[in-house]
Amino acid sequence: MSIQSLIEIYVTLALGALLALWFFSEMRRRRFGPTHSEDRVFRCVQCGFVYTDDADVDRSRCSQCGKLNEPIVF
Ligand SMILES: [Zn+2]
Fold first, then answer.
1. pLDDT of residue 3 exceeding 80
2. Which of 1, 29, 45, 53 is deepest in the core (most CB within 10 A)?
3. Ligand 1 centre distance from Cα of residue 40 (Å)
């Protein structure tokens, strides 16, 4: 094995590590970024109360009458 190929392997590994680091930071940014800022909007079909809840919940209970509601899709 020559010095040339050793350097090539080293550069490839370094680039791969950088790419993996970028990929994981991007994944973390996407996972924690929008989920906290973008709440889902719910509108109660029973009493008409409009409220927000976390984006990761599919159905949310109305705080006024307790009915489960689907989120409003814009
Ligand atoms: Zn309600």
1. yes
2. 53
3. 16
Query: Residue holding tokens 């680091």?
Result: 21
User: If you measure from the C-alpha of residue 8 to the centroid of ligand 1, how many angstroms do you get, rounded to a whole number?
Assistant: 64
Angle at the Cα of 31 from the Cα atoms of 30 and 36, rounded to 5 degrees: 100
**pTM for the structure as a whole:** 0.48
**CA 34 to ligand 1 center in whole angstroms:** 27
Task: Give the Å distance between the CA of 55 and the centre of ligand 1.
Answer: 19
Tell me: the pLDDT tens digits for 30-61? 776 555 567 889 999 999 999 999 888 889 99
